[in-house]
Amino acid sequence: MIFRQLFDKESSTYSYLIGDEATRDAVLVDPVLPHLERDLKLLSELELRLIHVLETHVHADHVTGAGKLREVTGCTGIVPHGANVGCADRFVRDGDTVQCGAVAITAIATPGHTDSHMAYRVGADRLLSGDALFIRGCGRTDFQNGDAGRLHDSVTQRLFTLPDDTLVFPAHDYRGMTVTTIGEEKRCNPRFIGRTREQFIEFMAKLNLPMPQKIMEALPANEQCGQVLTGAGAAPNDEKAIAPAQRPPL
Amino acid sequence: MIFRQLFDKESSTYSYLIGDEATRDAVLVDPVLPHLERDLKLLSELELRLIHVLETHVHADHVTGAGKLREVTGCTGIVPHGANVGCADRFVRDGDTVQCGAVAITAIATPGHTDSHMAYRVGADRLLSGDALFIRGCGRTDFQNGDAGRLHDSVTQRLFTLPDDTLVFPAHDYRGMTVTTIGEEKRCNPRFIGRTREQFIEFMAKLNLPMPQKIMEALPANEQCGQVLTGAGAAPNDEKAIAPAQRPPL
Fold first, then answer.
1. CATH number for the A2-209 domain, one of 3.40.50.300, 3.40.605.10, 3.30.2160.10, 3.60.15.10?
2. Mind spelling out the 3-state secondary structure of chain B?
3. Which B residues 39-68 touch A at CB under 8 Å?
4. I need a labelling partner for B47 at 20 to 30 A (CA). Which of A5, A94, A179, B75 fits?
5. How far is B132 from B117, CA to CA, in rounded Å?
6. What would the mean pLDDT of B14-20 be, rounded to a whole number?
7. Pick from B58, B53, B43, B107: which is nearest to B220 by CA?
């Protein structure tokens, strides 16, 4: 398997490129729009054909590259079942598998950060944990129908039950960490160790975080597969903005 | 082997933590001073004992954490032979091996970015390429006795002769890439493909890059194992600045 972690400095987002060495099929998970050219170039250099873009959830802090990548490569856009993304080609449910050549990518329903969040197991020993589980942290639960109790269940009952040596690749890190393991998070994640479900809910309720800077732009754009909207919420000077009439059909 | 890539967003620097699972010995390569606490915490969480800090070269864009880490952990500080770092505990020459439990870290003299730069082979299949070879790029050669011809020789004769599937981890990336391979760089690195040694020298001479922002602070500090100097070149409000009398002896 080809596996590449890619970083967006502005939003501290990790995207992941998964490729099959024999078939040259590739899947991009959580691509970030401003890196479209970097990601297309990498696919071409590695002689990979993008077949799917896969989202862990509808992002509030950056605009997805899914729509543009689909336009350019003809790949399909896949999002979690229940996500408010009418333009997606496919919705995955818990346990569904997305195939990338011989590499199986299996969805694990992990709601809590949003109400339709999926983590993805890649092959036998890797987990893309999205915004459910971070390295010594977890995603916030105070918008997009977030629910701290459900996140606690997702992490402790779905992710912490995977083998301890599973490599965990999160959708964000803000301190320059790149990878962890399930065993390490079970031992060291300060959000979960020494806290009951109730204490976790109480803790999350008191975080009082500011809204993500780009939420007004990112959420409506990502509900349109990352096509940046004109009008309210759109970046006013974005040359790539697409007028409603030009948007792809639902 | 435990292997962790760590990122400093400000200078786009990668540090590397290497650990032996059996002996729990660890080596940190190119640590960045402001991440001292993050790195110490990670060592403690992974139950690793830091035995060496290893530098690929004397950095001009960030201050090394070597001195402080040595102070706190009692590790030794290792730098390339010829580096102007009087306070180092050991100088490695081409072919020397630094042992981290069962993991052998072997120095490969790769001058050109600076005159005493080392890349390090870690185990059989990984290379820490420092500032000699970047992902689709290479380090600049216009200060610290840099020499484009020597860099061309280092990359093409020492690094490009390693097995194609060697994973290459650079000391910097400015576009969010994390890893490459020798084969990929031989095929895709625009600094080297389609350019003779002479054309490479000519190209590097015309880059005309601005000086690194922190060079006046970083170079003298790194020649003192990262002890930030007071007086000229020091960050005036750095509470951790150490007065000359308190500096460790050479």
1. 3.60.15.10
2. CEEEEEEECCCCEEEEEEECCCCCEEEEECCEHHHHHHHHHHHHHCCCEEEEEECCCCCCCCCECHHHHHHHHCCEEEEECCCCCCCCCEEECCCCEEEECCEEEEEEECCCCCCCCEEEEECCCEEEEECCEECCEECCCCCCCCCHHHHHHHHHHHHCCCCCCCEEEECECCCCECCEEHHHHHHHCCCCCCCCHHHHHHHHHCCCCCCCCCHHHHHHHHCCCCCCECCCCCCCCCCCCECHHHCCCC
3. 42, 45-46
4. A5
5. 8
6. 98
7. B58
Mean pLDDT, chain B, integer:
91
Give the pLDDT score at A213: 87
Residue B228 has a pLDDT of 64
Please tell me which residue of chain A has the smallest CA distance to B186: A45
Q: What pLDDT score was predicted for residue B227?
A: 82
The segments of chain A whose pLDDT lies below 70 read 228-250
Q: Which pLDDT score is estimated for A247? A: 28
- Does the CB of A186 have a partner CB in chain B at under 8 Å? no
Amino acid B250: pLDDT = 28
What is the reported pLDDT for A228? 64
Chain B 118-177, residues with CB within 8 Å of chain A CB atoms:
175-177
Tell me whether residues B178 and A5 touch, CB distance under 8 A: yes
Q: Which residue ranges make up each domain of chain A?
A: 2-209
Confidence of residue B229 (pLDDT cuts 50, 70, 90): low
Rounded to an integer, the average pLDDT of B96-105 is 98
Which chain A residue shows the shortest CA-CA distance from B15?
A176
Joined tokens for residue A124: 């036998």
Contacts of A6 in chain B (CB under 8 A): 176-178
Confidence at B176, pLDDT banded by 50, 70, 90 = very high
User: Global pTM?
Assistant: 0.90
Tokens of A142: 């105070």
When pLDDT is averaged across residues B105-110 and rounded to a whole number, the result is: 98
> Which of the following CATH numbers is that of domain B2-213: 3.10.20.90, 3.40.50.2000, 2.60.40.1840, 3.60.15.10?
3.60.15.10
